[in-house]
Design goal:
Elements (H helix, E strand, L loop, with lengths): L1 E6 L2 H11 L6 E6 L9 E2 L8 H11 L3 E4 L2 H5 L2 H7 L4 E2 L3 H8 L1 H11 L6 E4 L2 H7 L7 E5 L8 E4 L2 H13 L10 E5 L4 E9 L4 E3 L4 E2 L2 E3 L3 E4 L4 E4 L5 H20 L7 E10 L2 E8 L6 H5 L7 H9 L12 E8 L25 E5 L2 E4 L2 E4 L3 E9 L2 H12 L17
Parallel strand pairs: 1-2, 1-4, 2-3, 4-5
Antiparallel strand pairs: 6-9, 7-8, 7-9, 10-11, 10-16, 12-15, 13-14, 15-18, 16-17, 18-22, 19-22, 20-21
Helix pairs in contact: 5-6
Bound molecules: glycine (GLY).
């Protein structure tokens, strides 16, 4: 079996590792991939999925069993539709359904139509709009850019002054570009957050173990929001909450999707805020989470390559899970998330690390003649797998301590809050 993955980060490396556990030893290609994956997959780091001629020639030459689209950008840009039109089997939703992540307004309108619990909102496109509508909400105020904004699209303000300044940045200074030409002003949702992912063929769904991310940069949920500083899974929830998520969120989501003619073969990742046993949807993502994927995929016992190959053809099979726990601690570069330092020399890292129960995930590393250097904000993920949550966390942190670079940063409370 031959598989192509689009993407280059920790999520894609975790996918490579999980696919390599498949019984028929698939040949895995990643476009572009990264230096840190090169021991396990053929990476085309000099190129990109954005080069559609190169992507097309790769597909023609290799006749992949399926193509897995990792990040949201190619989905929002319609790469899955183009590949399907060319006759290839793809795991990844259509451009139409990618709007669930690509447009926060589309997602809210979808939820309203389907009766899915989510916070109240108005659509705004100017500072005036924000000023006229702020009285409808209580602080803290949430202003959410409509488009993809690389994790910078949600601004939470404690006061009206801060909210108006955020609106000025978004609509007048255009700090987020076109992504911020429209936005949601929405009611803040208190509670605790979980990451609920499921695979779907557009008709049925198969849930994955629930994960919990730690989005803030510093321990104790302090500091700026990031793409995610660490995750653990599986998070056990009460039967009642599980029932409420399935009946109030997933079933209405599937009903809407199944009535459409646009294909959804891929994953849906719900960011859900929980209050007691009541879920409220914060966001839809149309791809796997990063670093959620790093702690979810080690829990799958089934043959993932077989499962995804069938899904790419529209068939959804069952998945079985082991009884382990997995944790991923993200090791970041100084300056992350705003201005991460690249080119810092990494010591202690071994990309050929093959230990089954703890290993590094390459998120942003580069191999230069001088050795390994940082090449992004989230540099490595230290993954620990064990039969208890406590032991999985311990393994991840023991591994994290074996590498370093100047001003390395990681949270010390992943799984502990
Ligand atoms: N970890 C959050 C995300 O992938 O969006």
């Amino acid at each position: 079996m031959k598989i192509l993955i689009l993407g280059q980060g920790g999520r894609e490396h975790a996918l490579v590792k999980a696919l390599r556990r498949s019984s028929n030893s698939p040949e895995i290609h990643v476009l572009p991939g990264s230096d840190g994956m090169k021991n396990e997959a053929l990476c085309f780091t000099e190129d990109s999925w954005k080069n559609s001629l190169f992507l097309q020639s790769l597909c023609e030459k290799n006749k992949y069993d399926f193509i897995f689209i990792g990040p949201e950008d190619p989905l929002v840009e319609g790469v899955s539709d183009r590949l399907r039109q060319q006759g290839y089997n793809v795991v990844g939703p259509s451009q139409y359904w990618a709007q669930l992540e690509g447009s926060k307004i589309f997602a809210k309108e979808f939820m309203v139509k389907a009766g899915i619990p989510t916070s109240s909102f108005v659509v705004v496109s100017s500072v005036e709009d924000v000023k006229n509508n702020a009285k409808l909400f209580t602080p803290p105020y949430v202003l959410k850019a409509d488009g993809l904004a690389a994790g910078k699209g949600v601004i939470i303000s404690d006061t009206l002054e801060e909210l108006y300044a955020a609106a000025e940045n978004m609509f007048v200074k255009k700090t987020l570009g076109e992504a911020g030409s429209r936005a949601l002003l929405e009611q803040f949702t208190p509670g605790w957050e979980l990451s609920y992912l499921f695979f779907t063929n557009g008709q049925d769904y198969v849930s994955l173990p629930i994960a919990q991310d730690h989005k803030r940069l510093f321990d104790g949920q302090k500091g700026p929001n990031t793409g995610g500083m660490g995750t653990w899974a599986p998070l056990e929830i009460s039967k009642e909450l599980d029932h409420n998520i399935r009946t109030q969120v997933i079933q209405p989501t599937m009903k809407q999707i199944s009535q459409s003619s646009s294909p959804y073969r891929g994953v849906i990742f719900l960011g859900i805020m929980v209050n007691g046993t009541t879920p409220s949807v914060l966001e839809y993502n149309v791809r796997m989470g990063d670093p959620e994927t790093q702690s979810i995929l080690p829990l799958i016992d089934s043959d993932l390559a077989e499962f995804l190959s069938k899904l790419a053809h529209g068939d959804l099979s069952k998945l079985t899970f082991n009884k382990n726990f997995a944790t991923c601690v993200v090791l970041a570069s100084p300056g992350y998330p705003d201005n991460p330092q690249k080119g810092l020399s990494i010591s202690g890292y071994d990309s050929s690390c093959k230990m089954e129960s703890h290993y590094f995930i390459a998120s942003g590393v580069k191999n230069e003649s001088s050795g390994w250097v940082t090449n992004g904000g989230r540099v490595l993920g230290a993954v620990g797998i064990a039969d208890s949550k406590h032991a999985a966390i311990q393994k991840a942190y023991d591994l994290a301590k074996t590498v370093t670079w100047n001003h390395i940063h990681y949270r010390t409370d992943i799984g502990k809050t």
